[in-house]
Every structure is written in C-alpha cells, then in structure tokens.
Design goal:
Length: 98
C-alpha cells in the first residue's frame, strides 16, 4: 500500500492534500503581501499575482480529485473547490486594491 506522503510529491498523481496545502499557502502569502494584520498598512502588491497563480493551481489540483459519481467525497471536494475560488478571488482583489 502506498503511503500518503508519496502522492503529495508526484505531480502526475491526484492529491487532495496537495491542493489543500497550496490553497492555504496562497491564502497566507496573499494576506501577508497585502499588509495584513495591520489594517492601516493594507496596500496593493505586484507580487500578489503569484499568490493568485498558486491559488489557481490549487483549484486545478482539487478539481482533478473529483469523481464521476455523486458521493459524499464528491460533495467535500466541491466544497473545497468553492473555498479555493474564494481564496483566488481574495488574491485578485488584493492585487487590484489601490
């Protein structure tokens, strides 16, 4: 039986864990580049585009894990896709924020 960590590093295999980690990293980096946690220091950064690209990559990795039949696993992956979409939208808004 294959270990969980080995699928994480094999890019050709589907890995839900890789999608989740990429999304969380993109979220944290996007907030930090935007000036969070100081509300008075919020600013636009041109580096936000890389956080948005990582968030898009996370969406692709999560979408690869969708099955063909409706199951609870499929519903969970859809929920994660919506979360990835919100992270991507936040990164784009912080990129365009004046």
């Amino acid at each position: 039986m294959e270990q969980l960590g080995t699928a994480f590093f094999r890019l050709r295999q589907r890995s839900l864990l890789r999608g989740i980690v990429l999304a969380v990293v993109a979220f944290a980096v996007s907030l930090r580049l935007g000036g969070f946690p100081d509300i008075n220091a919020l600013h636009s950064s041109h580096w936000q585009i890389f956080a948005a690209l990582v968030a898009f990559w996370a969406m692709v990795e999560t979408a690869r894990c969708l099955g063909r039949r409706w199951t609870l696993y499929y519903a969970g992956v859809l929920l994660l896709l919506y979360t990835d979409l919100m992270i991507l939208a936040m990164a784009v808004v912080l990129f365009l924020y004046p």
